[in-house]
Amino acid sequence: MTTIQETSKMKTSLLRHIILLAAALIVVVAKPVAAGEIQTADSAYSRGYYAAAVAEYTKVAEEQGTSAELLYDLGNAYARGGDYGNAMASYLRALRLDPSSAKVRNNIEYIEQKVSETNHAELRGKKLSVERDSPSFFTSVRNYISRDHLSDTWAVWAAAAFVLFVACVAIYMFVRSVGIRKVGFFGAFVFLGVTVVALTFAFMAASYRSDEGVVTAPKVKLLSEASASSKESAVNLTRGTRMSILDTHPAGVDHPQWYKVRLNGDFVGWISEADFVAVE
Fold first, then answer.
1. Which of 136, 135, 134, 92 is nearest to 111 (CA)?
2. Distance between CA 267 and CA 259 in Å, rounded?
3. Please, which residues have CB within 8 angstroms of residue 183's CB and are 6 or more apart in sequence?
4. Which residues, other chains included, contact 222 with Cβ-Cβ below 8 Å and sequence gap of 6+?
């Protein structure tokens, strides 16, 4: 006779198999759906229906999650449609997921050039700068570690250095030659240090939060206060302009209504969330 315990095990095993089968079916069905939506977006893009392509790429991102390639395609659709603001934001997000992507960097440089030309035209003879602040040495180092490299990259370096550290310890302990043992001894310290540094960099990259955003309004003037009735700056900035975020209002909320931003010493002020997007 089948015992109660055996019956319970059979039910548990059956439930496990049902769950695994359901998960497999979800994966099998979801992939063609996502692929079909991307093909629809690609088709709309190739036929010049850029707004439709944006809608389809955005739908895929919301339903399936983002990737560097998807954000790159979304940025291209925005750019072809003339929306350099959301195009720049998409490219910057893509670069965060894949810092090594040359094609994303090339498109960012292209849009920056176009935006710079438009911003210079808006000056109309005014002696102001519309170029972004050059980062300080320490900011450049921080960006190189945290923004320009993934935490996984530093983690791989840490793992490789730790393996070499263990190898050097083994050489020191088991090799009789004094010269080789010295190499193992000092090598162990070096690779241990590299391991610690790489792990530190991995944590820095994992915890990195961007302090940058992009103007999305066709043209906008910065304000002296977080209020639509406050004093405006003398010159418009065009969509696609990258700016550093200094503060938000209300402070400490996920979706602030106002951002205090800086382009350079000539352009510091507040901008509405309706005209600006933070790149996270």
1. 92
2. 13
3. 168, 171
4. 232, 233, 237, 261, 267, 268, 269, 270, 271
Q: Kindly report, residue by residue over 191-245, the tens digit of the pLDDT.
A: 999 999 999 999 999 999 899 999 999 999 999 999 999 999 999 999 999 999 9
Q: Are 193 and 165 in contact (CB under 8 A)?
A: no
For residues 215 and 85, the answer to whether their CB atoms sit within 8 Å is: yes
Please answer whether residues 260 and 225 qualify as being in contact, where contact means their C-beta atoms are separated by less than 8 angstroms. no
From the list 163, 160, 162, 182, the residue with the least C-alpha distance to 171 is 182
Query: Nearest to residue 92, comparing CAs of 204, 255, 240, 272?
Result: 240
Cα–Cα distance for residue pair 134/140, rounded to 1 Å: 9
Backbone angles phi, psi at 279, to 5 degrees: -95, 110
Contact between 132 and 263 under an 8 Å Cβ cutoff? The reply is yes
As a residue count, the chain comes to 280
Phi, psi of 188 (to 5 degrees): -60, -45
